Amino acid sequence: MTTPRFGGPSELAAALDEVGYLPDTGLAAAAFLAQRLRRPLFLEGDPGVGKTAFARAMADVLEAELIRLQCHGGIDATQALYDWNFPRQILELRAAGESAGVTPDVTSLYTREFLVRRPILKAVETSPSVLLVDEIDRADDEFEALLLEVFENNSVSIPELGTISGATPPLVVLTSNRTREVHDALKRRCLYHWIDHPDLSREVEILRRRVEGLPDELAGQVAAAMRRLRAANLVKPPGVAEAIDLARAAVELGERSLTDTLADAALGTVAKHHDDRAEVRRLLAPAPLAASSFAADPDLPDLPDRADRADRADRADRADHDGHEAGRGRA
């Protein structure tokens, strides 16, 4: 299979757009160069901004197989590179011993037949492919050194079999939520791009594309609510994934605007930490203006916040008035 080639970042951005992913200009340029220069692409950003979804979209536009390696603390070569099928080897030893009456040659057990290919080895041998090394910041420092060796030569060394190399390197996408700093040695080997939360108009467009039947006004209200929540001091600020979940919940519940009923029913789509629930519920208050009002000026401060302040001022005025009336009654 021939991997599609793109004439520039704009062509790649258009192809990603067609499969439902809206990249910004910087991300499209970084992905284009990573493919042309055959360098890994290191994506860093807050959870839920679309790092993993980008790798899936790249696999779609490149007509390549997506191979995912989910990182975690303690991950090692047997989980990332290769391993041996020990149960099958033991069965082979027993069968050979029973049939021949002698102990078989152990080296015959370390062949391709008993090799278990883990994600990195599979990606090296598969062309075309996109290797997603997800949440590299959760892995240990030693694992970063292992990746450097593989990326340098596009090969995996297996003592029993030798070196296994691939004809065409996979497109490697590493993601990090920045729970810790990844070593500079690995970053220097990669092209780096920080994925930020989308601006208001872009998030509205993402919601329109990802959520079928979503009213335009509700899309604008959800996107505006996400801006308020991300600006708040939350333990777990919402990402685009949470915005999509909230929008889908609204459609399933038959809501056409961000009502109090929707905010109560769908609170769990956005609030992902117990300490955030009260603040999230408060900030999910319905937006007073239609989506077009927000889209006209993305830099406009969040108008619902203004309304909140006005409401508080109105309540304070009413309280003062009631106090004056009570005083006159006593007089």
UniProtKB/TrEMBL annotation:
Region (Disordered): 293-331
InterPro entries: AAA+_ATPase (IPR003593), ATPase_dyneun-rel_AAA (IPR011704), CbbQ/NirQ/NorQ/GpvN (IPR050764), P-loop_NTPase (IPR027417)
Residue ranges annotated for the AAA+ ATPase domain, each copy included: 37-210
SMART domains: AAA
Comp. bias intervals (Basic and acidic residues): 303-331
Organism: Plantactinospora solaniradicis
Pfam families, per the entry: AAA_5 (PF07728)
PANTHER family hit by this protein: MAGNESIUM-CHELATASE SUBUNIT CHLD, MOXR FAMILY PROTEIN
The protein's name in its UniProt record: AAA family ATPase
